[in-house]
Amino acid sequence: MKCINCGTDNKLKDRTANQGRCIKCNHPFAFEPTSMSNVQITDPFFAKAIADISANNTLFFTPKQLLYFLDNRLRKNSKSISRFGWLLPFLVINLVTSLTIIIPLIVNLAFINFFYVSSKSTKLNLVSRKQNARNLQIIGVIILSIGILALKSFPLFVIIVILGMLPIYLGTRQIGRIELLIQDFLISESQINDWLNRWQQINGSILKILPSPKQENTPATVNPDVTAYSFDRLVVCDTASIAQLLIANNFHFENNCAILSITGYPQSIFDTTMQMLRRNPDLKVYAIHDCNPRGIGLVNNLRSHANWFFNSEIAIIDIGLTPRQIIATKRRMFIQSSPESAQAAKQLPEEIRQSLSAEELAWLESGKFVELESFTPQRIIKVLQKGIAGSQTLESDDSSLLLVGNTGNDMYVVESFG
Fold this sequence. Notes:
There is one protein chain. The strands form 2 sheets. The chain has a 6-stranded mixed beta sheet with strand order 2-1-3-4-8-7, sandwiched between helices. Strands 5-6 form a two-stranded antiparallel ribbon. The protein is an alpha/beta fold. It has helices at about 10-15, 45-55, 65-75, 85-95, 100-120, 125-150, 155-175, 190-205, 225, 240-250, 250-255, 270-275, 295, 300-305, 325-330, 340-345, 350-355, 360-365, 375-390, and strands at about 235, 260, 285-290, 315-320, 335, 370, 400-405, 410-415.
């Protein structure tokens, strides 16, 4: 493992002999991969992850974003089996035992079961799961080919056809649904916190990682000259953490907009900001949220609450995340599932349910959800900027927005999340 301080490569015996320090500069190593159980990370791996998620230390990020980012990096290295390393043993076993029926039948079913289970594994990345599904198709073709060549009787032909078609069917079905399968974390939030504490004890503070959003109930003093103006745009987030992320990365300055969360963050300037916003009849509001029942209800909350925009004619654009974006996207998203989310989806108000398709409702009621923090800061900022730029003329025929509701002022939805 290379030392991040001087670049010297330290072998395990060197690290052990020097009490976990670099043999050249004596800098301590934060991690020892050989002593880790479920996943192994190194100091260079962790340092690169921090640099990459922060775009070379230019963007702030949340601890939850780092969790998703590291999990994705680790998942890329978690392969159930080499891509085609199984193929030669599979062929040899089938050819050698082709004179019998029971042995190849058991072997083939074992291979089919292994790859089918692996194609559904929530611990593998989507690329590995798709490869396992393709392996099922390959097994089916091989079984049919070998079986037909060694055909001896009609009953045996039927068995071979069934055994060959089964993995082809299972593999094809898995490939068609692989992008919408749920995933589980390889690591936990407590592990991330432990790693962060260990890293910062040794290497100093990570400047671009954000703390938990603070609630400041004392109103801030704002210059009257400033409050005389308004904003043309408002971004509303369903969580304080995303609002804090955008503010910390100066999104409001660079895009001339106000940023608030539905929970009232930042509390110290919330009332003043809302007073300024209500002065602009041409205000456009952009909603960005998790794809879960709470997030899906964000626009409805903005429309139905007096402290927001009840009985207002302003345009509200739903940037996402929405189920239709996830179902339609070709990008791989980190989809999770929980009974609590399923129950909350079934209790959504009727006015929200009417804005969703049957497929979207089924997706939500199955308990699936996707969090905004599963995306990097750079991705969230780019998607939001693109959504704002694409909504300059809501009536345009080439607009990427989809009108939802009975009137032109109800809600616009961005069809694609980036």
